[in-house]
Design brief:
Elements: H1 13-22, E1 28-32, E2 35-39, H2 44-60, E3 64-68, E4 71-74, E5 80-82, E6 86-90, E7 100-101, E8 108-112, H3 119-133, E9 138-143, E10 148-155, E11 162-169, E12 173-176, E13 182-185
Length: 194
């Protein structure tokens, strides 16, 4: 018989939300898997990529909005709080929500990798696990380190993560599957990496 170690959280969700609301604007805090994390400050290329994606999504699907840095309650078992770089949802979906919204209705979350030592753990492992468990249909990872875009689909709410992942190199056309159903020419992303 296998005995699983009990997960110990650094603080309660309420304590985290109080701490996050008091943090200065120069710091973005998240609470994933019971740990408080500081999300790296974005750079100009990072912001340009999010802006590029917003334009492409709005042109193809004017019924949707791309929300920058909308806080989400994810990973129900561990009561995590994440602030993706962007969340694609129906127009005005998050109107009336506070700082942390339920993930229901979010069609896709987007992360653009920063240049830091925690990218592998955070963006390639913890985030897809939390977003998949929350039932968000798509997780788009724009990975500036590897020069790829990965679309995670078919969320697994029971164990977390996604059943499918499709990797596309910068410069190729990427098709975002349903429920988005749009194509993206990723050539421009080559200009926004170090």
């Amino acid at each position: 018989m296998t005995v699983m170690a009990e997960h110990t959280s650094q603080m309660s969700v309420g304590e985290f939300e109080t701490t996050a609301s008091a943090a200065p604007e120069t710091v973005t805090l998240e609470f994933i898997d019971g740990r408080i994390e500081v999300k790296p400050v974005t750079d100009g290329d990072h912001n340009t990529i999010v802006s590029w994606l917003a334009k492409r999504c709005m042109q193809a699907r004017p019924d949707l909005d791309l929300y920058a840095a909308q806080g989400l309650r994810v990973d129900a078992y561990r009561q995590s709080r994440a602030r993706p770089d962007a969340v694609l949802a129906p127009e005005a979906h998050f109107a009336g929500y506070g700082e942390w919204a339920e993930p229901d209705g979010a069609l896709m979350v987007v992360e653009v990798t920063p240049y830091d030592s925690d990218t592998n753990r955070r963006d390639r492992h913890e985030r897809p696990a939390a977003y998949g468990q929350a039932g968000i249909p798509l997780y788009l990872l724009i990975d500036r380190d590897s020069g790829t875009v990965t679309v995670h689909s078919s969320p697994d709410r029971r164990v977390g993560g996604y059943r499918d992942a499709r990797v596309t190199k910068f410069g190729e056309t990427l098709v975002l599957p349903d429920p988005i159903g749009i194509g993206l020419d990723t050539e421009i992303l080559k200009s926004h990496v170090r």
